[in-house]
Design goal:
This protein is an alpha+beta fold and 207 residues long. Helices cover 45% and strands 16% of the residues. It folds into two domains: 101 residues, Phosphorylase Kinase, domain 1 (2-Layer Sandwich), CATH 3.30.200.20; 99 residues, no CATH class. The strands form two sheets. The chain has a five-stranded antiparallel sheet with strand order 1-2-3-5-4, with helices on both faces. A three-stranded antiparallel sheet has the order 6-7-8, with no helix packed on it. α6 packs across α7. The longest helix has 15 residues. The structure holds adenosine-5'-diphosphate and magnesium ion. The site of magnesium ion has 4 residues, from loops.
């Protein structure tokens, strides 16, 4: 099924379910994706299930209605961060039930470690790359901010676009073919997330 056909299908589904509660609509979308469509499940994180559409695109479906705002946030942040740092959002449901995003090659732990070594001269833990982005007092952060244009652009972009980097370990990065630096595939957290949400999510993320 092409992205266009998928969008048409979702439009029809939305009109059939007009006036229904968010829970009912999300259930209908998930049931169709999992049980009826031929979309292959690719992967999931704490808040979205991700399916293969074609060689260029993936479908990201909110897991719970509390996750709808994350898809909405990703749409806003993708435009703000731009292509150098973020996967493109190709199409999105206005309510945040789903988005269609540019497909990237998810990064393996070791490949991310090698990239950090080669490009940033940094031998940290790929799981906690987000900590390096957050921690402005860290010497490595400060050095990279001053000497690495990619790093500086990323930090400035996250700030400008109000994106919270706490969850930016290697699992939320992908490679775009022909590009040496990785690109975010998950950048859905608004800055200044409440601490209790972070704690809940980090247990999910690292388990
Ligand atoms: N644009 C994409 N291209 C390829 N794989 C993706 C893309 N977005 C997400 N994925 C895969 O799906 C997983 C979960 O998606 P993610 O956006 O991280 O959702 P969550 O908000 O639940 O963490 C990712 O870790 C990655 O493996
Ligand atoms: Mg993720």
């Amino acid at each position: 099924m092409s992205p266009k056909e998928l969008i048409q299908f979702f439009r029809k589904l939305a009109s059939n379910y007009f006036g229904e509660s968010e829970i009912v609509v999300l259930r209908a979308i998930k049931d169709w994706v999992d049980l009826t469509s031929d979309l292959q499940f690719l992967s999931s994180g704490a808040t979205r299930d991700v399916y293969d559409i074609d060689e260029h695109s993936v479908l990201k479906v909110a897991k719970q209605i509390t996750d709808l705002k994350l898809n909405n946030q990703e749409v806003i942040a993708s435009r703000c961060l731009g292509k150098t740092y973020a996967s493109e959002v190709i199409a999105a449901d206005p309510e945040g039930f789903w988005i269609i995003a540019e497909k990237l090659q998810p990064v393996a732990y070791n490949d991310f470690a090698v990239w950090m070594e080669d490009e940033l001269n940094y031998s940290g833990n790929p799981n906690t790359f987000g900590d390096l982005l957050i921690n402005q007092n860290d010497e490595v952060h400060q050095y990279l901010y001053q000497h690495n244009l990619w790093f500086k652009g990323l930090i400035d972009g996250l700030k400008r676009c109000k994106v919270d980097p706490f969850d930016m370990g290697y699992k939320n990065w992908g490679f775009r073919s022909g590009q040496k630096n990785p690109v975010l595939l998950d950048y859905a957290f608004e800055a200044h997330l409440n601490e209790s949400i972070k704690i809940r999510l980090s247990t999910l993320i690292f388990n």
